Amino acid sequence: MTLPRVLFVTGKGGTGKSTVAAALALALSRHRHTTLADLDRRLSAASALGAIPENSTAVKVSDTLDVLALTPPAELEAFIDRIVPIRAISRRMLRSRTFGYVTAALPGLEAFLLLERLRIMAGDAALEDRYLVIDAPASGSAVELLSVSSGVKGVAPAGTLNRLANSIDKFLGDATRFGAVITTTVEDLAVREALETAATIRDRLGIATVAAIINCVPDLLFDTSDLAALSPLGDHARLAVRRNAAHEQAALIVSRLADAGLPAISLPMMFTPAIGRAELKKLGRVLNSELLDR
Amino acid sequence: MKPLDLRSHKLAICLGPGGVGKTTISAALAVHAAILGCAVDVMTVDPAPRLLDALGLDADSSEPVEVALDGIAHSRRARANNRARLRALRLDPKRTFDSIVARYASSDAARDTILENRIYRNLSGALAGVGDYMAMEKLLELAANPATDLIVLDTPPATEAIDFLDAPRRLLELLNSRAINLLSAPAGLFRSQLKMVDVAARAVLTAFDRVTGLKLLSDVQSFVRSFDGMYEGFSARAVCAQEKLRADDTAIIIVTTAESSRIAQAREFLGALENAGLRVSVMVVNRVLAELPDAAELASAKIAPSLKKKLKRNLADYAALKTREEVSLSALRASLPTGALLMVAPDLGREPRTIADLAEIARTLRSI
Predict the structure, then answer these.
(1) Residue B155: enclosing H or E segment and its boundaries?
(2) Are A197 and A146 in contact (CB under 8 A)?
């Protein structure tokens, strides 16, 4: 599979979006230099990789992997620094409440600046032959973010902003440059949201969907004869049935997603007391073989 | 352990990050209180389709709809007390906002100016706190009904706990702040009254408008200006809402799951609420792993050794997940304020589809 330059990882809250983004960045960095851009204020993906980036300065994780934090306020700050040359004033202004209300009243400004920044970063990544993995917001907000440029075109039918919005749209709509990866679990709600998100992203926004990733799929431990022999065992049987059911559910979901034109990859449940670097590597290996070597 | 009893409360607000089952917990608590004999209203924000079915709501239910409690065993007290009922409704922020604008606008012309404003129409959702404020507004409307004992309020998913609770104050401040002066003063006029930062802020906005050709500034100005006469109405409502939130018979409930990033978020919520002087009554950790089966049972089981080995592995696997969960829970416990309850809702193992499922969730909710 040829992957786009930028992989935008989103999904329902609680489906392990940040874990998947971190594992994906780790996997891709074995092939090419990769940057993980963390859009989450808590920096969960970056900290899973053991790095805490500040501002939008990249922090090195390995020779081929670095992470950076990208926040709408920081983009706004950069924009303001270009306009208000005296730093002391621009800083004070950013801290002022009044200004907070004003930016809130100028809807979409921050999101728009963030998208523009991603477009520029994607250009750099192409020049340097790098991958860019984005730990994006949960699906609802992600769709909002990706829709900002069409919203802007709606209110600015001509002019500079319209041109900017057009170039952002072109970037988002170019499957070699930008694609979405949607995470889910075996839970029906998460799957449904993944399908809805994929449909919105692809059909309404014209953005490529690269794959869906089904997270936390337990391996198949018991066969049918095992389960039959287990029934008198009560709670142990229930736990075994639960594990197998989740595994089988995942297989059904793969075909349900495939029917919707979304190639799906199952990631194994990590039965460990914590998700550390070793677990991310394991997940990364699965992603590597499913995404790149296929 | 007794399940959470909200009978002594008039209002329960469920706050929490997205995707943790806040709506499910809100609905479960409401069903439970109705079973115990209360007249309950539950207001949901973004219910899952099946939950919507369970509550008998359709996409358009912005007014309370009576929920049938058929097949649910009522407590003896509830049977004796014919107040018991459950009503559910769905918040529609846009419609609520439209109706408030209509209520407080000084004239039909002022109302139409707002409703037709480009900012309001296309992008009012992005105006910070509007959806949150509307939930609060609807709440006050429901609370005015003397036949209702308890209102359970589900809130929009938030990254910041305070976003929701603070919405009335923020909207008021926006309407009453220097931002108004900043935005409504025509360039060149009253400059001397503006502070240096305001002049800079104005320069940024003007530059943004110039760069973009959007002329957003004038739209924002007319939007803010048309709220002028509505300030009094908003202000009175916001004060009422603030009082309600801080009342003794209001329970603030944070809902989360045991996943480590959610726990971190829940702890931030706690801190923010504490800073705002709001008291959290309960922290509910939703979908925790059910109790694990007894390992000793395996030792004596008469089954093939190969199968026994598999079962041991299965148990060890889930025990590892349980350990992960317990680490998260003890971190959470350590940050709970005194007097607040820590409760867990074991995973139902299926998506709740019926009122009975919701009642079961409330019944299995226990403090730890």
Answers:
(1) none
(2) no
Confirm if B86 and B35 have CB atoms less than 8 A apart.
no
Q: Are strands B65-66 and A59-62 parallel, antiparallel or unpaired?
A: unpaired
Tens digit of pLDDT for each residue in A146-196? 988 877 776 667 777 788 889 999 999 999 999 999 999 998 889 999 999
Interface test with A, best of B123, B184, B315, B328 (most A CBs within 10 A): B123
Asked if B45 contacts B16 with a C-beta cutoff of 8 angstroms, the reply is: no
Q: Which residues of B touch A113 (CB under 8 A)?
A: none
Closest CA to B119 of A10, A154, A45, A207: A154
Task: Judge contact between A153 and A166, C-beta under 8 A.
Answer: yes
Contact A240 B351 (CB under 8 A): no
Are B197 and A89 spatial neighbours (Cβ–Cβ below 8 Å)? yes
Residue A98: which of B129, B177, B224 has the nearest Cβ?
A: B177
Mind telling me how many Å the CA of B39 is from chain A's nearest CA?
Answer: 30
Looking at this protein, which amino acid is placed at residue A46?
A: A
Residues of chain B positioned with their CB less than 8 A from the CB of A158? 213
With 0-12 / 13-18 / 19 or more C-beta atoms within 10 angstroms meaning exposed / middle / buried, residue A18 is buried
User: What separation in angstroms does the CA of A61 have from each of A48, A65, A67, A134, B309?
Assistant: 11, 5, 7, 16, 40
Closest residue in B to A226 (Cα) is B307
The tokens 């409930």 sit on which residue?
Answer: B253
The CATH code belonging to domain A6-288 is 3.40.50.300
Cα distances (angstroms) measured from residue A48 to each of A32, B18, B356: 20, 21, 40
Give CA–CA dist B174/B168, Å, rounded: 10
pTM of the model: 0.84
Enumerate the residues of chain A whose CB falls inside 8 A of the CB of residue B327.
273-274
So what's the ipTM on this one? 0.90
Domain ranges of chain B: 11-367
Chain A residues within an 8 Å CB radius of B200: 84, 89-90, 92-93
Q: Which CATH architecture has domain B11-367?
A: 3-Layer(aba) Sandwich (3.40)
Say if CB A235 and CB B293 are below 8 A apart: yes
| Interval B113-158: pLDDT, tens | 777 776 566 544 444 456 677 777 888 889 999 999 999 998 877 6
**Partners of residue B116 in chain A, C-beta under 8 Å:** none
Nearest by Cα to B272 from B256, B290, B260, B254 = B254
Interface test with B, best of A40, A75, A83 (most B CBs within 10 A): A83
Residues of chain B by 3-state class (helix, strand, coil), percent to 5: 55, 15, 30
